[in-house]
Amino acid sequence: MELVCARPQISSYNFMRYLCASLVKRSKVIIDLDSIISHIYDFKQNNEKLKFMFEDIEFRTSIDNVISNDISEGINNLQTFGIVGKLNPKYEKLVIYLTADEADEILSECSEEVETAMMELAAFF
Question: What residues does 66 pair with on adjacent strands?
């Protein structure tokens, strides 16, 4: 009963904020939009000890792709707040509009374990 009523440690929105901040720290500010969900899913599958980070993120897999409405919604929210944008004409690239100082401020909100995991995940992009 406690798990049903409890809030996740990291919301899907904050997960994407931390990931974007980690990508900026790794000097990766233009990301292929199609690869984001598959990289996150692969990271989740290979890091069982970090499953608490994915409590608010649902993935659906099919034969040849992985989708997540939670991650897509997180990206849309980040776009609304001006943290990211999508490049025209096909919106296939995600651009992160954070400075290094803003990225540091965002990452200071999370634990060292989460920050380390996000930096590892950012290395896959």
Answer: 61
